[in-house]
Amino acid sequence: MTCIALSGYYGFYNTGDEAILEAIIGIVRRRLPGAELVVFSADPDHTRQEYGVESVSRTCLFSIFRTLHRADLLISGGGGLLQDVTSLRSVAYYLGMIELAFFMGKKVAVFAQGMGPLHHPLARRWVKRVLNKVDLISVRDPLSAAFLEELGVGREIRVAADPVFTLSPASPQEIETFWARHKMAKAGRQQPHIGIALRFFPREQDSGEEIFEMLTRACIYLVQRYNARLVFLPYHLSRDLPLARQIASGLSQQSLVIDCPLSNKENMCLVGGLDMLVGMRLHALIFAAVSGIPFLALPYDPKVNAFLGRLGKNPLPPLQEMTLERLKKDLDIVLAEGKKNFTIGLRAKIRELEGEVEKAAGELLSLVEN
């Protein structure tokens, strides 16, 4: 039996990374239904129960050695694993996992990752050296491919897309059931429900307070101008929830903060019932796009504009350069455009991206199909 090990930011209850994991598992099961999957996770019990796969602790060297010993392939990805925004630990962990697989004579594929930023010279040299030895590389956007080429990675680099584009949107019946079960049913058509998916800035400490104030004022504007009910979606509970609660505390009682972890299907149901989503979090925006929900992206990181480019939409100014007046104007435009006009051509673009992911997955799994 083919055994495939999966390495990524799994088991930390980060909605985006959990959606990536579900998408990769789904792709492998469709193409290699008999394959055994083992996920390196921060919470192996949760991963086993949620996805029906074998899982071991991502920090237990004995379990990792034992898994790689019987694995035919290590998949590293997707998401933004190779970056040093917070520290070198992320780079060291994921490259260390790849080098361990090399040492044990295993095939390695980097799948649908977003690359960088890498500020430390050591990290840049290390990524270049390791990625030049892997069996296959695919990235989720052209910016990541250009970044690797700039680093000096000489291997062929396939531009695919984020695996989450392959997830299915929730049906109208599933959306209605979810909203009713959580007592979130809309009182009427005159009150738009707008999802807010924010996060703290990882680096820009100086501008963080100003941006926080601007986002708070924009939320107040939505409530006062449109009588909107704001639904705050913390996509990484431990990091995003304090920010969501802080902003919601200054708004009317009708605002809602989602303060418990949801499954990927539940998140798709939640987003699918919104009238609009305003998001910094990349995967909140992808959920909205897949669900056909109008969205306004807040580009705190180049990957957000890379996402817009993949959908054929114009890039937006970085959030650090955004003014409150410009933000209000953009909110007005998306709300005035409405769901029908906003999503014209969007489904076709998403099908293209799904095709890119499936093609890259086919090349990936050809490493072990024989």
Compact summary:
This protein has 14 helices and 12 strands. The N and C termini lie close together (11 Å). Helix 7 packs across helix 10 and helix 10 (264-272) packs across helix 11.
Question: What order do the helices and strands come in, and which of them pair?
Answer:
Blueprint: E1 3-7, H1 15-31, E2 36-41, H2 44-51, E3 54-57, H3 61-70, E4 73-79, H4 89-103, E5 107-113, H5 121-131, E6 136-139, H6 142-151, E7 157-159, H7 172-181, E8 193-197, H8 205-226, E9 229-232, H9 237-248, E10 256-257, H10 264-272, E11 276-279, H11 282-291, E12 295-297, H12 302-310, H13 324-342, H14 346-365
Parallel strand pairs: 1-2, 1-4, 2-3, 4-5, 5-6, 6-7, 8-9, 8-11, 9-10, 11-12
Distance between the termini: 11 Å
Q: What's the CATH first level of the largest domain?
A: Alpha Beta
What's the rounded overall pLDDT mean?
A: 94
Q: Bin the helical content.
A: 40-55%
Number of strands: 12
Report the radius of gyration as a whole number of Å: 21 Å
- Which structural class should the secondary elements be placed in? alpha/beta
- Give the number of helices: 14
Assign an overall shape. Answer: globular
Number of domains: 2
Any low-confidence stretches, pLDDT <50, length ≥5?
none
* CATH superfamily caption of the largest domain: Glycogen Phosphorylase B
Shape-level CATH architecture of the largest domain: 3-Layer(aba) Sandwich
The topology string of helices and strands comes to: EHEHEHEHEHEHEHEHEHEHEHEHHH
Strand order of the largest sheet: 3-2-1-4-5-6-7
Outline the biggest β-sheet: 7 strands, parallel
Per the CATH scheme, the topology name of the largest domain is Rossmann fold
Strand content: 5-15%
